[in-house]
Description:
2 domains, mainly alpha, two-stranded antiparallel sheet, 300 residues, globular
Amino acid sequence: MTPRECFAELYPPPPTDFFRDYNGRMKLNLNAILKWFVPLAAIAALAAWMYLSPEGALGKLDAVGYAVCHRIDARSFQINDRQLPLCARCTGEFYTAGLALIFQIFVSKRRAQFPSKGIIAALIFFFLAFGIDGSNSYLYLLKQTTPGRLDAIPNLYIPNNVFRLFTGSGMGIALGATLFPALNQTLWRKQDDRPALTWKTFGALTALTVILNLLILTDAPVVLYPIAYLSALGALTLLVIVFAMLWIIIMRQDNAFEHPRQLWLPALAGLTLALLMVLSIDLFRFRFTGTWSGLPGIGG
Length: 300
C-alpha cells in the first residue's frame, strides 16, 4: 500500500459532477449530477405545466383534475356555475386522501405499521362501497349514452353527487391510511413500530370527513374554494409520493433518512415525474377532445 493510499482520507475528491481519482482517471459522481439535474428537470416540468395549462389558479388545478378525472359537468360541484377541478367522486377521494395524509403527519408522525385488522376491514368496506357506487354510476351513464342496449340490466339506485362524494371520501381515507405507513416504512432509518391509525384517530378522521362533506353539500363558495385546492393538490401529492417512493427504491436509499430536510431530492424527483405524467395525459386527452372540460357529448 502506498503512502498516498494510507492517507487517502486527507485527499477527498472535490464535490463536482466529475472528479479525478489518484491515477488521474475521470470518475462519475452520480449523486452530484442528480443534485443538479433533478432540480433543473423539476423547474422545466413546472414551467411547461404552467405554460400549457389553462390560465388562472383554478385553471391550473383543472389541468391536474383533467389527468385523473372525467370532469363531467353534471357530476361535479359548482362555484357560481364554475365547475370544480374534479368530479364529485374524485373531489371526495382526493381531498380526503390529502386530509388523511396531513392528519397523520401531525397525529401519527413516524408510525410505520398498518392499522389493525378491524380498521382494515372498515377500509375494505369503504373500497367496496366506492367500487359499487362507481359501477352503478357508470352503468347509468352507459344507459344514457347508448339507450336501449343495457336497459335489461337494472341499476341499484339512481346515482347522485351525495353518494359520489361520500363513497369517494371513504376511498380517500383508505388511500391515506395505507399510503402513509408505507411511506414511513420506505423513508426512515428509525421508525415507530406502532400502527399509524388507531380506532381513536381513525374515528376522528372519519368524523372530520363527514363534517366536511356536509359542509361541501351546502354549496357554499367559502367551503368549495379550499376544497377545490385540496382535492387537486391531494391528487398531485399522491402521485408525487408514489413516484418519490419509486425513486428511493430504485436509488437504493430506502430506510436511509433521518430528517425531513434530507428528502428534498426524492421529493423533487417525485414532483418532476408526477408533472410529466400529468402533462402527458393532459396533452393526449386534449389532442382527442379539444377541450379542458368534461368528455364531449357526455352529461348526466
